[in-house]
Amino acid sequence: MKIDDTLGFAFRSLRGYPLRTGLMLLAMAIGVASVVLLTALGEGARRYVTQEFTSLGTHLLIVLPGRSETTGGPPPLLGETPRDLTLEDALALLRSSAVRRVAPVMVGSAPVARDGLSRETVILGTTAAMAEVRNLSMAQGRFLPAGEASRAEAHCVLGNKLKTELFGNTSPLGRFVRIGERRFRVIGALAPKGQSLGVDISDVAIIPVASASALFNRVSLFRILVQARGRDAIPRAKEAVLEIIRERHDGEDDITVITQDAMLATFDRIFKTLTLAVAGIAAISLAVAGILIMNVMLVAVSQRTGEIGLLKALGAPGGQILHLFLSESAMLSLVGAALGLLLAGGGLVLAERFFPNFPMAAPAWALLAAVGVALASGLVFGVMPARRAARLDPVAALSRR
Amino acid sequence: MICLEQVERVFQVGEETVYALQQVDLTIQPGEYVSIMGPSGSGKSTLLNILGLLDRPDRGVYRLEGLDTTELGERKQADIRRHKIGFIFQFFHLILRLTAAENVELPLTLAGVAAGQRKARVAEALDRMGLADRARHRPDQLSGGQRQRVAIARATIMQPAIILADEPTGNLDRASGTDVIETIEGLNRAGMTVVIVTHDPELGKRTGRQVRMLDGRIEDDLRRAS
Ligand SMILES: Nc1ncnc2c1ncn2[C@@H]1O[C@H](COP(=O)(O)OP(=O)(O)OP(=O)(O)O)[C@@H](O)[C@H]1O
Ligand SMILES: [Mg+2]
User: Is the complex ipTM higher than 0.90?
Assistant: First the structure.
């Protein structure tokens, strides 16, 4: 029997029982669609996080005060408080050739007021380098000017939301706001950027680090952002940072350096594992669909004994009957898988419309794997009914009408 | 061409042993027209199934054109059924979801004949059965006699040497039954060996040779001088 005739015969048999075939296809389609959609969701989460991290800035190292002990060991008896990170520490890091820019960050909270409007706001004290290190773009005016970092200039840059709260749609440039007890001239406003890893960069006021130091009456930095000269320079930059700070802190290793790449890699790994796990769970539904195929085919075999007996009487050997029934299972799973892909495609289009910021996308391997598993489960679970058909005794099969 | 020697077929039903066939010797020459008659349960269908290689004897030898079929494997037997034997059943055994033409086409399809050739042969076979205008009808849109003629077209499409019919008129009224028998006799005149199982003595009288069975044995075997 020719292959196209085998497939044609299988196709007609399936068409002969439209309800059963339809339900079977639905089960298979849902299985495949859920694998694809859940994988797309996992992949989307991974991309989202990666994107968020990259938007922090490139080749970034974050220097935190205090040592995060990862090697275990007993904690020190008396809580030895780590030395503060200071502006001088930050500027010293520029000595390393692996470091391109350094942005010290001092964080505090103070009321920002204008014409009786007042808002408790996060205040970031930093330097001009911040704009490049964090990829900040301006909506109006300019960022803090480059210059002597230790000079407490009385000017500020407003986050987008804060600017709108205080000035509405009018230009804030050249106007004055009161932060704490001091007056600052507004020189710029940030472009809307939204959330950036939990910190709402649109609801801040940015002032020179020296002004922040005076405002909050302290010298300790919240952290130092360091931009390495390139991707390859990141490990060297990390070494240099540790060494310079150790030297300045009397030989103590009392800081923690986190590299963005390391964080990215970790998240990447976590999300990939998560995606695989979710896809695996969804694949169980494909196995369930496979068992449904087996059930449907078993019913088909017992309903069609007369037909099977006839085929044998017409000279079809068992092997040919096996092929016919396996083709039906394979066709069910393949067409079901195709419908599932369509369904998943529709789901992705809808998701894209409702959550445009979430980059959901099904990776190619997931599509292939879903279709592969669908076909495999159709064939594996189709073997038993097909063998049963092939082994039917023709006399017994024909005597039942 | 057909030669059975001491053929025995035994069924075990619970404790009981049922001898469906015992010590059956039967030789049929090419072109013969044979009826097998006898009371219900006498082993007629069992004999026909063995002749058609749908069943195997438990003992004895069945030679078909000199070839000992009892030794053959499943594939080889299927091959003989495909090319040498055409079956006609009491209940037609047409596939309901296929049209008359597709039912007739089935043996050609199973044998892997190219689609182009199939169409012409099917049209010709249906035409011979006077069913040219019913080609696209489904079995449930046909009368009993028409269904049986579709089945005959299917049984003969591979031009087998032997036609085996188990009560081909059992489900038909007298008029369409006679019609079907005349069709089958036409095949015999064209040179096919025909073996018919029947309960109908009228029909039995028409055949050149009448085999009577009783309790799994051949009681008598009459040849009409012609
Ligand atoms: N599969 C089977 N299992 C057990 N016994 C069987 C089987 N097939 C046939 N028999 C027995 O073998 C005997 C012959 O059966 P067979 O069908 O050949 O009779 P028959 O002459 O065709 O009868 P009828 O005229 O009713 O069709 C019967 O006694 C029947 O009960
Ligand atoms: Mg019978």
Answer: yes
